[in-house]
Amino acid sequence: MEERIYLDHAAAMPVHPGVIRFGRQFLEEFAGNPSTIYQEGLQAQAAVAGAREKVAALVGAKDPPSIIFTSGATESNNIAIRGTALRNAGKGKRVVVSAIEHISVLNPAKDLQKGGFTLTQVPVDHYGVLDLDALGAAVTPRTVVTSVHYANNEIGTIEPIREAAEIVHDRGGYLHVDATDAAGRIPIDVERDGIDLLTLSSNQLGGPAGTGALYIRPGVRVQPVLVGGGQERGLRPGTENVVGIACMGEAARLAGKEMPEEMRRLSAIRDRLITGITGIEDTYLTGHPRERLPHHASFRFPRIEGESIQLAMNMLGIAVATGSACTSMTLEASHVLLAIGLAHDEAHGSMVATLGRGNTLDQVPRVVNAARETVKRLRAITPL
Ligand code: PMP
Predict the structure, then answer these.
(1) Which atom of ligand 1 is nearest to the CA of 73?
(2) What confidence score (pLDDT) does residue 81 get?
(3) What are the sequence ranges of the domains in the chain?
(4) pTM
C-alpha cells in the first residue's frame, strides 16, 4: 500500500510533535482551576499566562492581556463581530466585511442585520484581492467594525491588511482580521499591520483543536457574547481549557520559530504543485499567483465536480479539499469562488491542497499524476 498523502491542513492539522511532548507532560502534572489561589490554581494561572505571552509574541501584541482564549476561530469571530458591534452601537449601526470572509464572520454579521445594523459586503477582484476603493466607499464614520481576513482559506490570497487598516482608521472604526489560515504561516504584526482585533485558531498553529484566541487592542470596547463568570476579563466566561490553552501557546512558539524555514520549504512544494497541476489540460489556478499563502495551492477544473475529485483522489491515497470543509456539507457553490467572478458551474469543480510539516517535494509527482488521471477519467464520463 502506498503511503497516504495528506493535503488538507486547512481543515485539520496534525498536532506538532513538540506540542504533543509538551502536552503529555502537562497532562501528567495536575493543574488546578486558574481562578483559585492555592498552589495548584497558581500553577494553572501561570500556564495560561505563559501561553498568553507566547501567542502575543507570535502576532507582535505588546501587551499579553490583550489576548483572550476562546474555543476556536468561530467563537473568536463571533466575539469580534457581534461583541464589538453591539458594544459600540451608540456610535453607529454599520458593519462592513469583505465578500469572501469565512461563514463564521459572514453569519454573525448577517445576524446583526436583524437588530437593525446595515451590512455592506465589499467585493474582491478575480484574484480575491479586496477592492480598496470599494472599501473606502463602504466604511463611514458610523461603521463600528470592519472585518477583512488576513488570507482566504479556499484560494490562499493574502489581503492588503495595512491599506485596509488605514482606510478603516481614517474613518474612526475598528478593523477585525481573521488570521485563522495565515497565523503561524506568514509574519503577522498587529502593530505594523494596524489590526484592532485578530482571530487565531490553535489547530491552525499545530496545536490541538478546540482552542482559539482573540487579540483585542487595549482600549477597543467589546462586550461578551456568552455571559457567566469573570474569566478572560469577562469576555469569555467559563473555566479555562487550561491544557488546550497551554498547548496553543506552545504551538504558537514553535510555529513562530519554524516559520522562516517552513515558508521556504512549503512554498517550493506549492510552486511545484502549481506548475504540475496547471499543466493538465483546461486547468486553472484560483487565487493570486504570487500574493498567496506559502502552503496553499488551489485549482479549478471546468466540467467536473469537486466532490468527485475529492473521492477519486482519496481512492488514490491523497486527501485534498474542495471549497471549504465548513460549507461542503451543503454542496452549495462556494461564495468565495462566485465572488471572484466564476459562474455557478465553474465554482463547483475546485480542488484545494494545503501543505504542512509532513509534506515533501518528492510527493509532488504522485499528486500531479493522480490529479491528471482523475481529471481525465471524470471528464470522460461527465454529463456536463
Ligand atoms: N475562519 C477561517 C478563515 C477559517 O478558515 C476557518 C476554518 N477553516 C474558521 C474561521 C473557523 O474555524 P473553526 O471551525 O475552527 O472555528
Answers:
(1) 16
(2) 98
(3) 5-13+259-381, 17-254
(4) 0.97
